[in-house]
């Protein structure tokens, strides 16, 4: 069984936007051999209620971007077919 190793290079940036700050998270999803994982699902989950706030899919290079995120507490859930 393959182990999903996530190479996440995250950067959180806050930009003032009208009333509340918004940020973004971007990164790279890789397997245990450091090969990019195309089509991995990345879900941004709100900590307060465990509801997915945004979901994106990694591109061919394993890269993803989650933008326009309001301030708050979140965690990432990353899944890929054939990975554990």
Structural overview:
The chain is an all-beta fold. Helix content is 0%, strand content 43%. It is built from no helices and six strands. The strands form two sheets. It has a three-stranded antiparallel β-sheet with strand order 1-2-5, with no helix packed on it. A three-stranded antiparallel β-sheet has the order 4-3-6, with no helix packed on it. A hairpin with a 5-residue loop joins β3 and β4. The chain is globular and about 40 Å long. The N terminus is likely disordered.
Instruction: Kindly name the structural category.
Output: mainly beta
Largest sheet: 3 strands, antiparallel
Name the helicity range.
Answer: under 10%
3D shape: globular
* Proportion of residues in extended strands: 35-45%
Oligomer: single chain
How many individual helices?
Answer: 0
- Quantity of strands, as a count: 6
Please give the order of strands in the largest beta sheet.
Answer: 1-2-5
Summed over residues and divided by their number, the pLDDT gives a mean of 82
State the end-to-end CA separation: 7 Å
Low-confidence stretches: 1-17
SSE string: EEEEEE
Radius of gyration, in Å, reads 14 Å
Annotate the secondary structure layout.
Layout: E1 13-15, E2 22-28, E3 41-46, E4 52-57, E5 63-70, E6 74-79
Antiparallel strand pairs: 1-2, 2-5, 3-4, 3-6
